[in-house]
Design a protein that fits this description.
Structural class: alpha/beta
Distance between the termini: 43 Å
Helix content: 40-55%
Number of strands: 15
Number of helices: 20
Bound molecules: pyridoxal-5'-phosphate
Length: 463
Amino acid sequence: MSTESQYLYSQLPAIDRLLRDPAIEPRVEQHGQTLISDLLRQLQLQARETIKQHQRLPDWCADWPQALGAALAQRQRTALAPVFNLSGTVLHTNLGRALLAQPAIEAVTRSMGEPVTLEYDLDGAGRGHRDRAIADLLCQLTGAEDACIVNNNAAAVLLMLAAIAPGKQVVVSRGELVEIGGAFRIPDVMRQAGCQLVEVGTTNRTHLKDYRNAINDQTGLLMKVHTSNYSIQGFTAAVDEAELAQLGAEHGLPTATDLGSGSLIDMAQYGLPAEPMPQRLLAAGVDLVTFSGDKLLGGPQAGIIVGKKALIARLQQHPLKRALRVGKLTLAALEATLRLYQQPELLAQQLPTLRLLTRPQQAMQQAAEHLLQVLTPQFAGHFQLRAEPCWSQIGSGSLPVDRLPSYALTFTPQDGRGATLEALAERWRRLPQPVIGRINDGRLWLDLRCLEQEEALIEVLSA
Ligand SMILES: *Cc1c(COP(=O)(O)O)cnc(C)c1O
């Protein structure tokens, strides 16, 4: 080792001395000695590495308290960092899907800090199970006889199959054997539930007679799956739920639909692409319908199964229900979300998902023009900014072909290089509150549909 390096190593302060530094002591008091010593040791190792490789002290060694502050901030950075979702996808699975309504947030907060009547009966009527109160609410809203709540819609489908058709054949159209993101594939779920999948029809056309011909004494369930994330167009035919329910009734077989998104309100009434509604399927005679809590419903992650009382009772009693049940936080959020549906006139204001989906293009255009003015000087010489019309997606398995007109602020690199664009996107992902946009057609697009606080974005991009 050179004497030069030896000298540099000797310049590194001892941990004990750092811990007594007046600028570091308050950190120790606030966070405890274990964490702070650990971070200081790490910094020291980093410094030693720099000396070894470059025969000099890293610049930050001039200010250990500040380096410690930065390391502490880094260590405490949450794994669930809040971001600006300007991706153009409203229900973005990787960004946590639906944002909860204020009453749901308050209900969750309350249930976190205080005991609640999760399975405790105040009126002595014998509540039975934790889903009871919310199942009643779901029955009011959908006309179902009963309901069951589990961790997500994938769990809802699994539980339904395992409880209703164990060891039996389940008949599904070939055109509906979907894969939803995150490895949810209907054939795999069937196998896990102990059911035998019987595919009928073809990819593009399936008729009632295909289901009828598949029925035998091993059949346990006739099932439909909403092809939420793709669409088959052209020469197509599918059997509607009412016909299938009729066929099931004739043969004494239950029918079920996995709806995926499922909306409790008529989306068309808000000028949005129509989505099937659980209440309509139940009215058409389907015995069980499953859907997600955090897609169009706009609530917490949950799987909801509504339908016939006797069938729901089998779900509630199945051992898998115990493994898939939800906690009080989910129930609190779901209850508060569902209550909003009892005041449909207020829904478009109170439910963030619906509020964002129904924002008029003009609102995003105004935002884009305002941001254009404020931000253009900062990017001058590097990026050309423009306010441009674009299309948002609903996301989370609503039809990808159904787009909503929106407006974006776009960034085109003046050197015309894709690498510059990638670098900008990368820089924004590293901001204290990361900004998530979309690169397309040689520019970075910030779709402003989900931006309700312009000032917050300006502040983050100007820092
Ligand atoms: C989204 C979806 C699922 C999975 O629902 P999760 O709540 O994400 O588990 C299952 N089936 C269909 C048709 C879907 O659209």
